[in-house]
Specification:
With 272 residues, the protein is of the alpha/beta class. It is globular and about 55 Å long.
Length: 272
């Protein structure tokens, strides 16, 4: 089986934190963080829908400045070991890498600037909406947001521009992923749109928790490879049961059970 494209979750797979609630922890009140932590745990466990989770989390994010959202990725977000090496390996093999996550586009833009657009092809996910003085009627579009992030990372004086403090989260979110189960369909649509020469059995999906269970399983059922990485016990039990009870044309592998020492370089031998 030739591997021609990698789809990966973000939170818990490429970075240690749950980035959406972690920004609330850092920049909003303890009470706001407790509310966010509770609803995201419910969403992760399947007792709350994506819409229910973000209906609560979005207003809790209101007022976070664009500067804070960008600097969060530079100062507070902790990458899983081996990410740079994995991305370098994939780029050397001309294998596109897609972040397929319920995280925010602003976080993705920052990651892409850090590692290079040549290393990370694109993003499937959700959109934290920003506006001037957090006004939804003065919303900043994604194209402008992307350019603001690029300028911030450019090394010029853009990072000192007070606009980064005036542009704030509006308390609204656009859901690009409405259900975790949508991830396989969305990556399949992405592949068909951008890579007409890549078949679904040449796609890998990587994830760490139950939110990626269907993505991992679907990749394997399509004849491709599903990788449980930095995985928790709930995901392990689910996938192993499916492996025993269902016909799976491809493969599912387990790399690094969640323990704080996961290393993405250990995935490389399986995708050579």
């Amino acid at each position: 089986m030739a591997i021609k494209l990698i789809s990966s979750d973000l939170n818990g797979t490429l970075v240690h934190q749950h980035t959406m609630e972690d920004m609330i922890r850092l920049y909003k009140s303890k009470e706001d963080f407790k509310k966010a932590d509770n609803i995201f745990k419910m969403q992760t466990s399947g007792t709350a829908t994506m819409k229910e989770a973000f209906d609560i989390a979005a207003p809790l994010s209101k007022g976070i400045t664009l500067r804070q959202a960008i600097e969060y990725t530079q100062k507070s977000m902790k990458y899983i070991n081996g990410l740079k090496e994995l991305l370098d390996f994939l780029a050397g093999k001309n294998i596109p890498f897609i972040i397929n996550s319920t995280g925010y586009s602003v976080t993705f833009y920052c990651i892409q600037e850090k590692f290079g657009a040549d290393k990370i092809h694109g993003f499937i996910g959700n959109y934290l909406l920003f506006g001037v003085n957090e006004d939804i009627n003065k919303k900043i579009g994604e194209k402008v947001l992307r350019e603001k992030v690029r300028n911030f990372f450019s090394g010029a004086n853009a990072s000192k521009d007070m606009a980064y403090d005036k542009i704030k989260a509006t308390g609204k979110i656009k859901l690009g992923i409405k259900n975790e189960e949508d991830k396989p369909k969305l990556i399949n649509n992405y592949v068909k749109r951008h890579f007409k020469n890549i078949a679904l059995n040449e796609v890998v999906h990587i994830g760490d928790a139950m939110g990626d269970s269907i993505g991992i399983l679907d990749a394997a059922k399509s004849g491709g490879l599903g990788i449980a990485f930095n995985y928790n016990e709930e995901l392990e039990n689910f996938l192993k049961k499916k492996m025993r009870t269902e016909d799976i044309d491809g493969n599912i592998i387990f790399v690094d059970k969640k323990n704080g020492n996961a290393d993405l370089r250990r995935i490389i031998p399986y995708i050579k």
